[in-house]
């Protein structure tokens, strides 16, 4: 692995500006991804994982806004801000433009696999046609060459008889097969990094295991780096090299996967782990009651875990306004 990370994320902050206040969905997270490794981003629903994943590619839609932090990929600034003399935060001049992100980064260098393939595949077009078009656009190939490449990629991800399935529609594929198509689409442009946003959540355990084995084999073959977003500690143990645990918009623990399981530091990580190990239902129910609505409005005063200083002492969720450096950006 090279000394310089493939992806570096520093103090990334994404807020949602609502009528009720500011939702601090991602609250100053920092992590790196090296060449050829799989880095996990794990936490319960509402922890901020998917918003963080979208923020890396600047795909956050209103009322959400990336308000602070820096994201660099191979030394280029995907997102970055600086403070002017008057205290206003503005985007850096060296930050890639929207056109550069669209033409050079998304799909070509960094691909993303979403949780629900039916949300990503158009039901009125054939699977092969969608894959071929994606390859045409991102690899500048002609229609015939792109079709051959699409069939090869369907074969690569384990679609049986890809020449025949090429003209089938998404509804003619099982959930696991549709997810394989999205993996083929992500790999087809040979990106350096793939963000997998809970791609196995909707699958049964057997199919999930097959998809994880497939990703493991393809990662070895192509040496592609992954950010694997999940709430499932079992998946983390199966596939990841390093792990970032998210809770209420923050990363509360970072570790190699073996260290995370054998030398757990944070109480929240322990609760995630015990949920995998079969924590008695009565205790789980108490925990859920205590922490229900932890990301709701601050005036609800949700109970919190007894956590280190990195989390305790700072309320999360919706605020009446932004504070500190995390103000709304002013166009540079």
From TrEMBL:
<keyword id="KW-0997">Cell inner membrane</keyword>
<keyword id="KW-0067">ATP-binding</keyword>
<keyword id="KW-0813">Transport</keyword>
<dbReference type="InterPro" id="IPR003593">
    <property type="entry name" value="AAA+_ATPase"/>
</dbReference>
<keyword id="KW-1278">Translocase</keyword>
<keyword id="KW-1003">Cell membrane</keyword>
<dbReference type="GO" id="GO:0005524">
    <property type="term" value="F:ATP binding"/>
</dbReference>
<dbReference type="InterPro" id="IPR027417">
    <property type="entry name" value="P-loop_NTPase"/>
</dbReference>
<feature type="compositionally biased region" description="Low complexity">
    <location>
        <begin position="313"/>
        <end position="324"/>
    </location>
</feature>
<dbReference type="GO" id="GO:0005886">
    <property type="term" value="C:plasma membrane"/>
</dbReference>
<feature type="region of interest" description="Disordered">
    <location>
        <begin position="313"/>
        <end position="332"/>
    </location>
</feature>
<dbReference type="InterPro" id="IPR050388">
    <property type="entry name" value="ABC_Ni/Peptide_Import"/>
</dbReference>
<dbReference type="InterPro" id="IPR017871">
    <property type="entry name" value="ABC_transporter-like_CS"/>
</dbReference>
<keyword id="KW-0547">Nucleotide-binding</keyword>
<dbReference type="InterPro" id="IPR003439">
    <property type="entry name" value="ABC_transporter-like_ATP-bd"/>
</dbReference>
<feature type="domain" description="ABC transporter">
    <location>
        <begin position="7"/>
        <end position="273"/>
    </location>
</feature>
<dbReference type="GO" id="GO:0016887">
    <property type="term" value="F:ATP hydrolysis activity"/>
</dbReference>
<keyword id="KW-0472">Membrane</keyword>
<dbReference type="Pfam" id="PF00005">
    <property type="entry name" value="ABC_tran"/>
</dbReference>
<protein>
    <submittedName>
        <fullName>Oligopeptide/dipeptide ABC transporter ATPase</fullName>
    </submittedName>
</protein>
